[in-house]
Write a structure and sequence with these properties.
382 residues; alpha+beta; Rhopdopsin 7-helix transmembrane proteins; Alpha-Beta Plaits; four-stranded antiparallel beta sheet; two-stranded antiparallel ribbon; 8% strand
């Protein structure tokens, strides 16, 4: 077995492995899989055509028509394999249209040359040499390479810097493999090996990028469901998750605050829901100021805070929160008042996190009752 046959076996096995990986990838749709299969098939046919033409060349026992067919397939499918790699990027623009046009012209040219000998001259000893119009093929080949480079550049601009770097290195690998074979001729066969490696790395790049985008979408959806749209505080869903986590393992210095806006119904009834929203947003901004990252909006005017502190700290922060609320003034609502209650784990040894919230809620309602009693407001109408 000679060197090139060994290279060809490695190339074919690699292409088969890539087809298996594509088949096993459940995230790829039928159309995407078809593009990958087409790419690997074209690379395989191109490589096999070149290998067969080298194997047949000089063997007078084999009909020269097979050598002519092999060379024709080589010249038709080699440029196509480069364009097929571009197809993996699933991006269409003017460059891809020009590429398809050049490929179509080259295919027609090669089929015509099969009968005219423009590209390949078969000698009597069943060897071949380049025909009189081989230069036209090389010109088209260089145009295709140039257009592929431009397409890689345009495609890479849509990605972050680290993703662009890996994409350009894949292109460099393919170009280097082609250039080495062209420079050293038959002494080294690296073009199809480079194309295969490039196709493999591009498959890894595109699937990894697809996974990144999927993860980003999931993260965005997670933010949407865990963030309250009106206030920017964490949502009731996030509160339920936190409650489950703390119920399983609650810190010894855990504290739960239950906070409610006094008089929200009156504001909604008299000034409208826009004014009510302003009041809710004002309350949330004050709460977030003193409880960053641990405050939840659990209902229309209801908030829960799950934090860690002792009683003295809880009393101090409650006083500071009330001062912030007292100083607040909105565009549609003049003032705001909150009912605040809290419960500490260190004072309720047998309670879990949910129990602490219930206790804090009871303390909050006691504060709310005092507010309505002291202000002389009939709570039943609020």
């Amino acid at each position: 077995m000679n060197y090139y046959s060994a290279v060809m076996i490695c190339v074919m096995l690699s292409l088969i492995l890539l087809c298996v990986l594509v088949h096993e990838n459940e995230r790829l749709g039928k159309r995407d899989k078809a593009i990958y299969y087409l790419t690997y098939a074209l690379i395989g046919v191109s490589a096999l055509s070149e290998w067969i033409s080298i194997f047949i060349s000089g063997n007078i026992e084999i009909n020269s028509i097979f050598l002519r067919i092999a060379k024709c397939c080589d010249y038709v499918f080699t440029p196509m394999s480069g364009v097929a790699i571009v197809m993996q990027m699933r991006s269409r623009n003017v460059i891809t249209k020009i590429l398809y046009g050049v490929i179509g012209f080259n295919t027609l040219f090669q089929l015509t040359s099969f009968f005219t000998g423009w590209m390949t001259v078969i000698r009597s000893d069943n060897t071949y040499s380049h025909g009189p119009l081989y230069g036209l093929y090389m010109a088209m080949y260089l145009v295709i390479v140039f257009l592929v480079i431009i397409h890689f550049g345009i495609y890479g601009r849509h990605f972050r810097k680290q993703n662009r770097l890996s994409l350009y290195l894949i292109l460099l690998l393919i170009l280097l493999g082609i250039a080495l074979q062209e420079v050293f001729g038959g002494g080294i066969r690296t073009s199809y090996m480079a194309l295969t490696l490039g196709a493999a790395f591009l498959f890894i790049h595109t699937t990894e990028l697809s996974q990144q985008k999927s993860d980003e979408r999931i993260e965005q959806q997670k933010v949407l469901i865990t963030t309250d749209a009106l206030t920017g505080l964490m949502s009731r869903y996030a509160y339920s998750m936190a409650l489950n986590n703390f119920n399983n393992e609650m810190p010894k210095d855990m504290v739960a605050f239950s906070i409610d806006i006094n008089g929200l119904k009156e504001v909604n009834d008299n000034l409208g829901h826009d004014a009510g929203d302003e009041l809710i947003q004002g309350a949330s901004s004050c709460i977030e100021k003193f409880f960053p990252g641990c405050a939840y909006r659990t209902g229309g005017d209801e908030f829960v805070v799950l934090s860690r502190m002792n009683r003295k700290q809880a009393e101090t922060i409650t006083e500071s929160l009330n001062k912030c609320v007292k100083a607040w003034h909105g565009n549609k609502v003049e003032s705001m008042h909150l009912a605040i209650g809290f419960a500490l784990a260190e004072e309720n040894k047998d309670a879990n996190c949910e129990d602490l919230v219930i206790i804090a809620d009871k303390m909050m309602y006691e504060a709310k009752s005092r507010y309505y009693k002291e202000s002389g407001i009939d709570r039943r109408r609020r």
